[in-house]
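Reading is simple: each integer encodes one residue's backbone shape. The lines below illustrate:
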Amino acid sequence: MPKENVAAYKRMAEKGCKIWLEHGALDYRECIAEDTDAKFGLSFAAGINAKPEETVVFAWITYQSRAHRDEVNEKVMKDPRIAEDMENKEMPFDCKRMLYGGFETLVAS
């Protein structure tokens, strides 16, 4: 997303955090890139072809299970506060470049 949109994104993320947790999510994280100079592999910024004036956000929400995720997300999507943000509002990031997926824990501490 454009670096100039970070403050607007943070406001949106803080609201989203509150809503997801209210509806049962166990944890909600939104992290902004602070080191994208990969010494090996492919950095997040390079992986999505971020321009110099852009930054990368990495976010995740923790649920008890996939069924719990589906239940929480259904409630969130029906929440009028989310609908309010989606209606005729310009997003602070390009939704077409957003990556999404569900992951199962492989190893945990």
Remarks:
- Strands lie at 27-32, 57-62.
- The chain has one domain: 3-97.
